Amino acid sequence: SFKIKGKKKDAFKFINKLKIFDISNNLGDTKSIVTHPTTTTHRILTENERLSLGITDNLIRLSIGLETVADLKKDIVTALK
């Protein structure tokens, strides 16, 4: 997990630029997955509860699958531009 510079819209801008990672609300697959915890896995919590856990609108969670490290790294670097 990491926090992207900016706000919720910036998190989704990054997520939507990814080509290899699948957008999902669950983790654990052979395919790499990207999740936005605020709007998926932790959406039932109040904002204060999420913040107390360090779950902010700019938090991105990655679950790495079986793709090559080079391909995943390239996808992330490209999406950050």
CATH level-four homologous superfamily name: Aspartate Aminotransferase, domain 1
Quote the CATH topology. Answer: Aspartate Aminotransferase, domain 1
CATH class: Alpha Beta
Major beta-sheet overview: 4 strands, mixed
- Tell me, briefly, the overall form: globular
User: Which class do the helix and strand fractions yield?
Assistant: alpha+beta
The total count of helices amounts to 3
What would your notes on this structure say?
The structure is a single chain. The chain is α+β, with helices and mostly antiparallel strands. The mean pLDDT is 93. It has one domain: Aspartate Aminotransferase, domain 1 (Alpha-Beta Complex). The chain is built from 3 helices and 4 strands, in the order βαββαβα. Helices cover 35% and strands 15% of the residues. Strands 1-4-3-2 form a 4-stranded mixed sheet, with helices on one face. It is globular, with a radius of gyration of 13 Å.
Question: What's the helix and strand layout?
Answer:
Elements: E1 2-3, H1 8-17, E2 22-23, E3 33-35, H2 47-52, E4 59-63, H3 69-80
List keywords for this structure.
single chain; 81 residues; alpha+beta; Aspartate Aminotransferase, domain 1; four-stranded mixed β-sheet; 3 helices; 15% strand
Quick recap of the structure?
With 81 residues, the protein is an alpha+beta fold.
